[in-house]
Amino acid sequence: xxxxxxxxxxxxxxxxxxxxxxxxxxxxxxxxxxxxxxxxxxxxxxxxxxxxxxxxxxxxxxxxxxxxxxxxxxxxxxxxxxxxxxxxxxxxxxxxxxxxxxxxxxxxxxxxxxxxxxxxxxxxxxxxxxxxxxxxxxxxxxxxxxxxxxxxxxxxxxxxxxxxxxxxxxxxxxxxxxxxxxxxxxxxxxxxxxxxxxxxxxxxxxxxxxxxxxxxxxxxxxxxxxxxxxxxxxxxxxxxxxxxxxxxxxxxx
Amino acid sequence: xxxxxxxxxxxxxxxxxxxxxxxxxxxxxxxxxxxxxxxxxxxxxxxxxxxxxxxxxxxxxxxxxxxxxxxxxxxxxxxxxxxxxxxxxxxxxxxxxxxxxxxxxxxxxxxxxxxxxxxxxxxxxxxxxxxxxxxxxxxxxxxxxxxxxxxxxxxxxxxxxxxxxxxxxxxxxxxxxxxxxxxxxxxxxxxxxxxxxxxxxxxxxxxxxxxxxxxxxxxxxxxxxxxxxxxxxxxxxxxxxxxxxxxxxxxxx
DNA sequence: AGGAGCGTCCCACGGAGTGGGACAGCCGAG
DNA sequence: CTCGGCTGTCCCACTCCGTGGGACGCTCCT
Lengths: 253, 253
Prior knowledge:
The structure is a homodimer.
Chain A: H1 20-33, H2 40-47, H3 51-63, E1 67-69, E2 75-77, H4 79-85, H5 89-109, E3 112-119, E4 122-129, E5 143-145, H6 150-158, H7 162-169, H8 174-190, E6 193-196, E7 203-211, E8 217-226, H9 232-252
Antiparallel strand pairs in A: 1-2, 3-4, 3-8, 4-5, 6-7, 7-8
The structure holds a DNA duplex.
């Protein structure tokens, strides 16, 4: 394993040697990705591994209850991943700090409230409170593109790591990239980012960054509602206040 | 690897060959178990592995963001375990079915409400409400002994798999075991189990089973409060109703 | 400087993981 | 009933990846 393959390997292929861990996690991811429970054969195709290997590895994961085996032979995510996930430090701290604030925001607006953290090219939802009106499936563990969503922009605007922003905006054509930079400037000035139906048509979202004690962004709080009933201008101060409040509570603890 | 060691291995030791997966998961568990973030050396002692091995394996887990590396070199659980955990099927379905009911129960009583599923000799908490936000686990992933807690007894009383009950009650001295069986009979008759300070001193808990569509128990809902301010007799009907309501919602979806 | 602690890296060794293929069970079609 | 196609599992020779003692570099104390 290991990042550098000391001997140059010719030919395309995947190469770069795959460790056992990669295989196990590929299986877990494949299971996660599929909405319902998954058959071994399906996993084999999705992960590009021999069926026999998947069978063996999956059996190991089942033994450890990272997967559960259903009566029909398919597998789903097991209890153990839940136990682990529920203990992940950063999400927990953010969530406990955010919970009461999210609720206040929800009571004040009735719209969908969510908290997000950044990962790669996406934002990962930690928790969401459903709004009263039309619902896109928003739930914990869900991902949304960082570049286009309000929460993503709120995060990126304050992201200290320039390389992250550069890498993401590299996918844009030059003038879109400069427009994007400009937008981030505005976000920095106002502490709120907005998305008016770009990421999800008909839905307006407003988001504000959340900072940890050392003043680095760790996520964003967002408010989203139908374009016709929600007013971004009106919501902005509320969301900004929520972001600030979460940051304060996070530092306090 | 594999369960049966075909050749008898003499001497004590651990033996029984340990697979890579076991090692990885031992590390994850060790990290989970410790409240705060953990050093590599500490993990090495806790898991009984050479430091060098732990370092390498942990690095792999960090690469995959199953662990996060803090500035001081310690590690904690990463975002990825959270993402996985948030998608585990059974907990999710139970939680979404349970959330509104838990909230009602909380509003009616003000006491601590939790839902639990069974695993081995313990009950695992899926979610606990102290605040008003549904779906925000206060202390999810926590474990309690199945034998002594209200939720454990509520589950065991209806557990179709006799071997589970037998195996657990095997640890009791004979007359305690028969007393336990008798108590389970009462639970079956009333649909509620009670624990008055045995598992946790000064705390009274009442629990009721939750059934899936096929009428098998999958967990329990519990209500817990301080012994002096909570009345088990009074709470019982509410908890029983909550259990029924959850079961109904679970079958409906 | 010296020492004690940490985490990482190196690399010869060997056992653990690999996966093609045989196999058994379960359907629905012929 | 028998066939073919579909599952998931098991076997086992081959080999490659994980192993871990020990060297190393680092940061803190004393």
